[in-house]
């Protein structure tokens, strides 16, 4: 698609693209400089286009410190999930942690996940609209949730935030729910499945936003590695949740172990993705 804006004499036609129905990049020339506007970089303040025109002023939610805080908080939640998985995998012995304290660690990990998820969504909700000067414009008012369903970044962070809330219930309910299989499936497994579905949707939306296609392979791009690794983590979280279903009867030990191992792999992916996002924030 090409959009002509004849009232700007210095502006050449804007080429826009992205996986339908989203626009995730714009390419044009302004004041003799080639500008490449990218959706992910725009909402996170990694705005190379604006910097090319000499504008480095950013609102606080696009600052390097803000992005590093989000990454570090995600990393903390991921680490606690990994720790909970390791505690679950310790064989029966005097050193085996109790199920109660293992669940406490999982619930503690869900809190940073939700905190970072909201901080990231707040960033997307206040990203501001595109303008040809490629300068980050503050929204007319601060939005705590926003409504931008045609924006892949906003949809990704919103579904992720909702998923983290579901995992709050998934990790807290084992502390107060009986061992009855029906109660376990309703109070623990169901919110875990809901959270996993939302995470998977969020991970794929972030992937197509970054790659500008339904499938992409950009191994030289740091941002692509972040969304790709996170997407792998979302897939393993989904596998873990499916295997965590509690049947009316005895669950084979290998199923429980496989569920925990997949959860551990997913948490490790999120941990790596969070650390890489801290490195990505250096571009702010």
UniProtKB/TrEMBL annotation:
| Entry superkingdom | Bacteria
> Which residues are in coiled coils?
none
Identify the keywords attached in UniProt to this record, alphabetized: Membrane, Transmembrane, Transmembrane helix
Show the stretches that span the lipid bilayer.
70-92, 98-119, 152-169, 189-210, 222-246, 258-278
Range of residues in the leader sequence? none
The yes or no answer to whether the keyword Membrane is present is: yes
What this protein is called in its record is YrhK domain-containing protein
Source organism phylogeny: Bacteria, Pseudomonadati, Pseudomonadota, Alphaproteobacteria, Hyphomicrobiales
